[in-house]
Amino acid sequence: MEALQGRDTQEDSPTMVHLTTYLLALDEQYDRQALELRACLQRAKEAEVFNRMLQVQLAEAHASAAVAESREAAMEEALKEAEDRHVHQLHAAYLVTRARRRTLAAERQDAPILEGIPIHPPAPPPSEVSDVEPLIPLTQPSSREDVD
């Protein structure tokens, strides 16, 4: 076969020449396919490494999401507690000021008495509404029934 590969082909048999050419072509094709297979194997190894790296990143993302959700739940609870404290403080302040207003209103209603007669009459509590009807404006035309 080595004799047929060189420039000087010394074999006279055409079958042997064709068989040698065929075998050399098969050898070249094997080398190309082996090189391509090695490249595919290298890409597959790189893909596996990249896949593992992505799995690690995914696990880290899940862990950080769980931590964030935990922090969010803690912050919501702290916010609810702060809101409850604030509402309680507002309610307590309202009760204190309400009691103080009632005390002041009671003190104002106790008019000083001079020989059994109050100096000024006590004012009605602010919660009572006056039953006085509003006055009719002068610009409103009067009806004939009102005139009769």
Shape: rod-shaped
- From the helix content, strand content and strand pairing, which structural class follows? mainly alpha
Q: How would a crystallographer describe the biggest sheet?
A: 2 strands, antiparallel
Per DSSP, what share of the residues sits in E-state strands of 2 or more residues? under 5%
Order of helices and strands: HHEEH
Helix-strand blueprint:
Elements: H1 2-5, H2 14-109, E1 113-114, E2 117-118, H3 144-147
Antiparallel strand pairs: 1-2
Explain briefly what this protein structure is:
The protein is an all-alpha fold and 148 residues long. The protein is 70% helix and 3% strand.
Which features characterize this protein?
148 residues, mainly alpha, two-stranded antiparallel sheet, 3 helices, 2 strands, 70% helix
Structure, described:
The chain is mostly helical. Helix content is 70%, strand content 3%. The protein has three helices and two strands, in the order ααββα. It has helices at residues 2-5, 14-109, 144-147, and strands spanning 113-114, 117-118. The chain has a two-stranded antiparallel sheet with strand order 1-2. A hairpin with a 2-residue loop joins β1 and β2 (117-118). The termini are far apart. The mean pLDDT is 81.
